[in-house]
Amino acid sequence: MVIFAVMLALTAFAAPKDKKSDLLKLRNGKSLEVIVLDLGNDSVHYRLPSLQKKYTIARDEVARVEYGDGTIVSLDKKGGVSGATSVAWRELPITRDPKDVEGLISVEKIDVTLTTGSNMLRTKSADLEASAFLQLQQQAFEKGATIILIKSTQFKTVYGEPPAIHIVGESFRSVTKRNGKR
């Protein structure tokens, strides 16, 4: 327990990090900011962001591992994986400037039409656009894109009909040469 308290204290004074750190959510309600090295069969191997020393904690003491890339792995009381999700797609950049995609290769054209459920519902255009952007990000991420260029946005508000938005975009990724270098 003393080692755990020392590790927890060290995480508060961690030096700035280049890599996004991970988060261990423990069953006792505490959290540790770490770099997960391995999610082993019986334990989680990690290090603190500011130190190179490796630590180990039993998997049954960990409720959830939140990786820096947005992936979340939930563990049951016995340490088994009870679920895994990834929200890395939420960080996919969206731009309206064609200069941002110069030199990149087109993955595919994507478009989303989103309508509110009711014409009585007062939905702000910004909220509708934000929801449509989430759908664009999910679609582009699934295809391996690294950025989305918005080509057109149309808001439709016809009397008696629910508000809608139609966004047309194109997803892009970097060009990789044959030798693996960019």
Give a quick rundown of the structure:
The chain is of the alpha+beta class and 182 residues long. The protein is 16% helix and 40% strand. The model is unreliable at 1-18 (pLDDT under 50).
Describe what you observe in this structure.
It is a single chain. The strands form two sheets. The chain has a seven-stranded antiparallel β-sheet with strand order 4-3-2-1-5-6-7. The protein has a four-stranded mixed β-sheet with strand order 8-10-11-9, covered by helices on one side. A hairpin with a 4-residue loop joins strand 1 and strand 2 (31-39). The longest helix is centred in the last third of the chain and has 18 residues, at 125-142. It has helices at residues 2-12, 125-142, and strands at 22-26, 31-39, 43-47, 54-58, 62-66, 71-75, 81-86, 94-95, 105-115, 147-156, 164-173. With 182 residues, it is of the alpha+beta class. It starts with a helix and ends in a 9-residue tail after the last strand.
